Amino acid sequence: MTRKIAVVAAGLSDPSSTRMLADKLVQAVFAELDARGVEREARVFELRDVAHDITNNLLTGFAPKALAEMNDYVAGADALIAVTPIFSTSYSGLFKSWLDALDREALDGTPVLLGATAGTARHSLAIDYAMRPLFTYLHAEPVSTGVFAASSDWGAEADSVAPLQKRIDRAARELADRLAGSAGAAKADPFAPESYLAGGSSFEDLLTNLPTRG
């Protein structure tokens, strides 16, 4: 079964470091899935291409064709890679506006790899205090590792302690594990009747077999 990955980049310039990071993330995820023998495909969407459509959708409640096709692909994808520039300590307004134009249930249970870019590493925590709560609110399932890239991560003086590629590879492994099924099995509901007794006994059996007091 082919795994579909939607990739959304919210960079405003062309080219942009946001798109560069998105490309590196999807390449790393592809490499991990290939190593696991999992078929995959991906589509990369740049929000700058549908910025006017997003505004029109917010104003009218109807999504123009290009935005509707993008949102349909995202809703039907097995995973999402979402990358935004950080402005004023948080995700961009365009990025948030797109999520506001997306169906509220589109990301239910979808594993998401979060990425962000900014000019300085001072914004590196934005993934955890801004992006992660947002996607959790949408009932998506962000992987543990988010990937932040500052301007210094692209140059010759890249961080020697946790270089960008190392962070990318770790996040890609986590998303690939989810897509391959090795880490994405649904957790058992502890309140389901079958969970009260080992061996899958039903709640009715539990009541029937309760010890009686003499």
Automatic annotation (TrEMBL):
Transmembrane segments: none
Pfam families: FMN_red
Molecular function in Gene Ontology: oxidoreductase activity
Domain NADPH-dependent FMN reductase-like residue range list: 4-154
InterPro entries found in the cross-reference section: CE1759_FMN_reduct (IPR023932), Flavoprotein-like_sf (IPR029039), FMN_Rdtase-like_dom (IPR005025), NAD(P)H-dep_FMN_reductase (IPR051814)
Keywords for this protein: Flavoprotein, FMN, Oxidoreductase
Protein name: NADPH-dependent FMN reductase
